Amino acid sequence: MGFREVDMFVALSDKPFLTDKEMASIISALPSTPFLKVYDIKTALGVDENVIYNWIDEGKFSVLNRSSGATEKKVYSIFRNSFLEFIRTRVIKGK
Question: Is the pTM of this model over 0.90?
Answer without folding.
Answer: no
